[in-house]
Every structure is written in C-alpha cells, then in structure tokens.
Design goal:
Layout lengths: L11 H10 L2 E5 L6 H11 L14 E6 L2 H15 L7 E5 L2 E3 L6 E5 H10 L6 E6 L7 H15 L6 E6 L6 H6 L3 E4 L7 E5 L11 H14 L5 E5 L3 H12 L8 E5 L5 H8 L6 E5 L2 H5 L5 E6 L2 E8 L4 E8 L2 H9 L7 E5 L3 H5 L15 H9 L16 H13 L12 H7 L5 H13 L2 H11 L11 H11 L6 H14 L4 H6 L4 H20 L11 H11 L4 E4 L6 E4 L4 E4 L10 E11 L5 E10 L2 H7 L4 E10 L4 E10 L2 E8 L4 H13 L10 H16 L10 H12 L14 H6 L3 H10 L3 E3 L5 E3 L9 E5 H4 L7 E2 L4 E2 L1 E5 L5 E5 L2 H19 L7
Parallel strand pairs: 1-7, 1-8, 2-5, 2-6, 3-5, 6-7, 9-16, 10-12, 10-13, 11-12, 13-16, 15-20, 19-21, 27-30
Antiparallel strand pairs: 3-4, 14-15, 17-18, 17-20, 18-19, 20-21, 22-23, 23-24, 25-26, 28-29, 30-31
Helix pairs in contact: 2-3, 4-5, 7-8, 13-14, 15-16, 16-17, 16-22, 17-21, 19-21, 24-26
The structure holds one DNA strand.
Length: 854
Amino acid sequence: MDRRQLPIFEIERELIAQARAQRRLIVRAPTGSGKSTQIPQMLLDHGLLDEGLPRASRGRAVILQPRRLPTRLLAARVASERGVKLGSEVGYQIRFENVAGADTRLLYETEGVLLRQMLSNPRLDGVSAILFDEFHERHLYGDVTLARALQLQQTTRPDLRLIVMSATLPSGPLEDYLSPCAALEAEGRLFPVAIEYIDRPVDFDRTPAWEIATAEFERVCREGDPGDTLIFMPGAYEIARTVQALGNSAAARGRIILPLHGELPHADQDAAVTGYDRPKIIVSTNVAESSLTIEGVKLVLDSGLARIPRFDPARGINTLLVEKISRASADQRSGRAGRTAPGRGVRLWTEREHAGRALQEVPEIRRLDLSEVMLTLRAAGAGDLREFHWFEPPEPRALDRAETLLRDLGALDAATGAVTELGRRMVGFPVHPRYARMLIAAESFGCVRAVALIAALTQGRSLWMRKPDKSTREQREEVLGEEGASDFFGLMRAFRYADSHHYDVAACHRLGIHANTARQVRALAGFFLDLAEKTGLKIEDRAPETEAICKCILTGFSDQVARRVDTGTLRCLMVHGRKGVLARESAVQDSPLLVASEVREVEGRGGELSVILSLATAVRPEWLEELYPGDFHEQVDVEYDAAERRVTAWRRRLFRDLALESRRVDPPPADAAADILAEEVIKENISLPRWDETTDQWIARVNSLAAWCPELGLAPYSEKDRWLVIRVICRGAVAARDLKDRPVTAAFKDQMDPSRRALVEKHAPEKIELSNGRRARLVYTEGESPHMALRIQDLYDVSDSPKIAKGRVPVVVEILGPNHRPVQVTRDLAGFWRDHYPRVKKEMQRKYPKHEWR
DNA sequence: GAGCACTGC
C-alpha cells in the first residue's frame, strides 16, 4: 500500500503550516491513521527539524513511545519506508538497545529513556522536536517528560517543538495546558464496532463474571458464528475460571480456547496471538487492551473489570484491587473487534451503569509512588514539584510521602530539601531510590555484587513461577535448598541455577523458574554493576557475608520493618502502626523480626482485603540498634488485661513506634494501676461489690442539698469527682478481686471535709425523726423532693409533712396501707388528714378491722 | 481461592 493513502496525509498541509506557526501542536488521530510513522517524516522532509538552526547543523525529532516493542517496530518500519538502514537516519533507543547514531534524524525512544537523557543533556541539545505518541495512555514518564519539556521550552529552549499525539483524549484540558497551541484531527482506519450492554445489572459476587461471559457467548452464538473472540477478565484466576466454563459449554465446541496474561511463558503468549485454522477464543487481561494486538478478532466480551495498581500515600503501601474500568478503556477494549472488519462488543454491565462510569482512567501520576520520579526531576533541575507545571498535578500527599522517603534515605537534605551529594550518586542508578540507596550502602557492607543482583531481581516480573505444584516445590527444595534468612537468597539461588543452566527453558521449568526473566535479570545485574563501577564503588572479590547483605537490605527499607504478632502466626505489626501478613511462601518463617521489601494490599474472595508482606528478610534487633541508634526508646505500658481481670504492666523497647520486646513489670506501678482499674469501673467492666444503695443515696443527698442550699457551698459530684473517689478506692489494687471488700460509701464520705459532711448529715439526713418519735428513712432522687414511705398507723400524731434542707424542702410522704400498698402520695400531710383520711379510714377499717384506726 | 494488572530507565 502506498503510505500516502494513510488518513494522516489528509492533514499534511495544515499540519506543516501549523507546525511552522506554532511551537506546540496537538494531533488527535486514532489507531491506523499513520501518525506515528508519518508525522516525524513530514517534519523532516519539510525541513522543520533544521529550521532556525545555524547552516549545516541538523536537529532531530524524538518520538516518545510508552512501550519498547512498538518503539523498535515503528523505527524499523520508517527506516524501511525511507530505504535507509536502521540506526542511520532513523533509529531507536530503548533500555539496553541504542540503535542510533550522530546522524539519526528520527529517533524513536521510550519515555523513560528521554527522562534519563534529561539528566545528562539538560538542554536537550540536538533535539528540535519531541513527539509524545499515545499520550492519552497517561503513563507516569509521559506526563513527566511533557511537563519538563514545556519547562525547558519556556526557559532555555524556546525553539523546541512539542507535538502531543493522542487517540482519544478529550479536547479542552490539553489545549488549556499547552496554550498557545494548535490542534488538528485526522481519521483512523478502524471498522465500526456495534456495542451491546446486558439488560439487567449483575452482582459479580453472586454470579461470577465467567458465568455471565459464558452465557453471553452462548447467546451470541445462537445468532450465528461470532468469529474469533476476545474476552477481557481482571486477572489470571478469573481467566482460568472462564476457560473452564467455556470448556464445558457446547457453544465453544470446536474452538480453541486460550488464556492470555503477563505471567504466562512467552510460548503461551505467542500461542494466543497466532492464527489457527479453527476459530479461537482468547481470554485475556489488560495486556490485550493496548500492549498486544490479536488480529482478526470480531467479538469482544468485556467483564468491565481490571486490577489497578495504586500507591496509597497515607499508608505507604501498594494496592492491587479489582476496579471498574473507565468508558475510554471500555472503548479501547471493544475497538479490538474492529481492526480488520466490522465487529461486535458485548459489555457485561448495563448501559445505565456505563453512564455512571469514569470517562478516563486515573493517570499514573495520580496513583503511583513518586519518589523515583521526584528524585530524578529534582536532580535534573526541575525545582519544587508543587510549583511544577503539571498537566494534572500529583496528590500533595503523594509528594509529601515521596519527599519524606527521600529525606529518610538521605537523598534530600533533611533541613533544606536540596538534593544531597548522596542523592546525586543515587540518581545515577535507574532504579527505585530504595535500591539506589542499597547499592551505595553495599560498598561499605562489601556486597555491591549481591545488591546489584538483588536490585535486578526486583525489576519486572518475579523469577518464580506463581503457584508451583507439589513436585516443582520438591524439586526446588532438593536442588536449591530452602534455608533462608531472606527471600532474596532464594531468588539469588534460582538465578544462579538458571545462569548455570544457560537459561534452558526446560531445566528452569522443572524448578518453576522463568528462564527468560532470569536472562533479563542477568543483563540488568550486569548493567547495575557497570554503573556501580563507573560511579567508583569498590566491588569486592570475595563472597559477602549473609549478615552484610541483610543489613544492606535493611538500609533501603527501614520503614518496612515488621514483627510477628506471635510465634507461629504470619500476622505482623509494622512500623507506623501498619499491619500485614507475611506471605505464606516466604522463606523467613522463624525470625520474629523481619523487613519486607514488598508490601501490597490485594483483594481476596468476597472482596476481602489483605496486606501481604513479601520479599522478606530476617532482621536481628542488634542490627537496628547498630544502624539506627537514635530511633530507639523505652516505655512502660500499663494496661488492663480483660481475661485476667487485672492490670498488667510491660516495659517495652521500641524501634520507632514498633515494640521489639516486652517484659512484664510486676507489680505494676501503683498509681497507673489504680487509674486503669478506676477507668474499668467507670466503664462498668469491673464492679465494686460494696457500691450499694447507700452509696447512690449519699451522692443523691449531696447533689440535692447542693441545689437546695447553694449558700452552703457544697459542690455536686461531677463525673470527674466520682472518678477521683473511685481512684482512691482502687489505690493499691491491681486486680478486680482486690476491690471485693473495699468500702465505697465510706470512701465517698471520707473524701469530704468533716464540716461539710456534718452539713449533709444535718440538712439532708439519711433518716428523719418524726414528731411521734418514730424514725423514718428518706429516699433521695436528684432533682426531686425526698421520699419516705410509712404505714398510716406509723403516721398518727404526725400532723404535717416534715421538712428538711433548712425547712425549705417538704418530704414527700408515701402513705401505705396495712398491706404496705400505697394509699396516697402527698407533700401535704395536713391536707391528707383533713380531706382524705375520713374516707380512707372507712374503707380500710372494713378490710382490716383488727388494725388500729383512730 | 489465603493472593499478585501492565509498563518503563
């Protein structure tokens, strides 16, 4: 096909005109428009790359790609279109591959490569234009390089041309960001895809996604052959279940069913992408959304779910939870059915729910750990990232978290926040700052070689195949052994095994080792070691001590130190009050103290979340004392043990906020013990057996009298006063049973000074003497008059209600019949005798003739 | 089923 028929040529003239007039350009064009291969050539062929440069000097265009493979493929295609050798006029650069020369005019490279180049060539000399391809994917480095390029354009490089190319990004925000700029659009070469939704919402917790997917596939099949089918699921487990469900379905008979996800060996991934003589069903994760293209797909079935990685800056841990994908992502997925012919997209959610979904995915800059990018940008001279001109600014908390970590690692000055000498050396290593710090520390621990390997082992996928079967596990143990102070040691042994077996796939497979990953680890480890050597780190000749390596790991992750809650459990407490569970497969099973190099929250069955600590290394408390002597302190914690029903005290030694050892202090400190028992009494977890009616009455008497006669200056008991008295009662006690015989009412009385106590006894007495010589008990209730209850016969000769509180408060009399049942309640006894007694007497006399009736 | 998407230097 003549490349001039590509849709992008429809806008060539305008594009060149705008590129001449403007330094910033947006080009929106979908897949298949030819933008990635043709626009760079247009710039070159129209002389735009040399414009404004001195005679005979030549500028180059850098075309940024998010992924390595397409970078190489695009460069190869453009080179062949131009009939030049790859690496001459057209070249590419990705990690470990630099196929470009001084005369390269069109340089395809990954976003991360440019960011590193910004460190060594801060003005980007020689670069006339940067093209940001697939910018809508919003990868971290894409956002970062664009922001930094704009900053350069506004300062030292006003001549730099920036062209942002995207497929689907909505217009508006990007124009505002790049303003002043021009925006152009071109058509794509995709076929229409008919979208269908299910009618009724489905709860995937009750009816799993694989069942719905299978049912929908069967439904589509009833309408005719759907052709090659691509099904999107969030992860490997869901994929396995879907494959299983389809295998049991008659509709899928005669079709090849293939899983596809990143953990699969290369051969299996290739199997999913190749064509067969039979129709196929691919069940895939997000790899098939943009990284891998499967030709000939006619039907896409989309669960609408994906596992999305995030960094939680509040807790400083990574999460990987199943989330609903955005509308843009759903369109991208269904678009996979329209690459070669019109297709069909079936979505396992309702149209109504679709309307409520997010327009775009949250960009990486808003959900990933920023410490590495922060250090690189700061070292490249980008200044304060809070002031940086972001397309979308990162969360302030994420910046804070990154800055804190960099200060803790010593990369930023604790006081000024400037990049330290150590920080500058760390930037030299293209790894997370934790590993960069470890590499530098490794020199003094004499283990640079080992740490270079460790750093390499943590990049990309794990060397271990996931969920090995029993025989694989046994083979592993037999060949590699299982001894381990660190999970890294297991990985290192696996790597050495793979290396000594020349990365033989079968030999590695026997032990459940990814041979290809091991090969990449070797390249990386060698690369890190070269860098270490160039930086001037002394590389040891002898094998390092295990302990040195463990200590070195600790320097990178001292904020992820964890302690077992108890022996025999995997549950751990971490510094900063976090909790987690040690990975079951970890080799560090016996050490009570460990450091986790990976902390990740994942979602289990029924949406249950758990924080898994992996890549663990055993730690001895002495190492912490040696490396962080200032981060220790001791404290005595006094607490109530509900099971023992007693106060216990522990002397604890803490590393930061994590208790490393606890020793019981017996007896516990008396004051604190009394306080805690008193609190438990207030909370009614412990009772005071001798707290009785007289106690409550005493409190009611004092409080009532304080209200009736304020001039006496009595204070009513507040919550706090009671607490104080209870505390006195508890003094010297450590267990609930010590309180059994402690007097309570007396304690309340003793707490009051004698003159006041006498006032209470006088004006709010417990008992009152009546005019007929009898003594009656008074019952006090706060806010009410006191009561007394007496039989009529006991009230003879008491002509009127008695009064207390200096005669201000009449006692309410509950008059009882001979059967002790109330006859009348009155605060006016005189009125009773006069108005009611004659009638009462008549009635009662009949019922109780033997009693005295006056 | 105790639990792991995808990139990139």
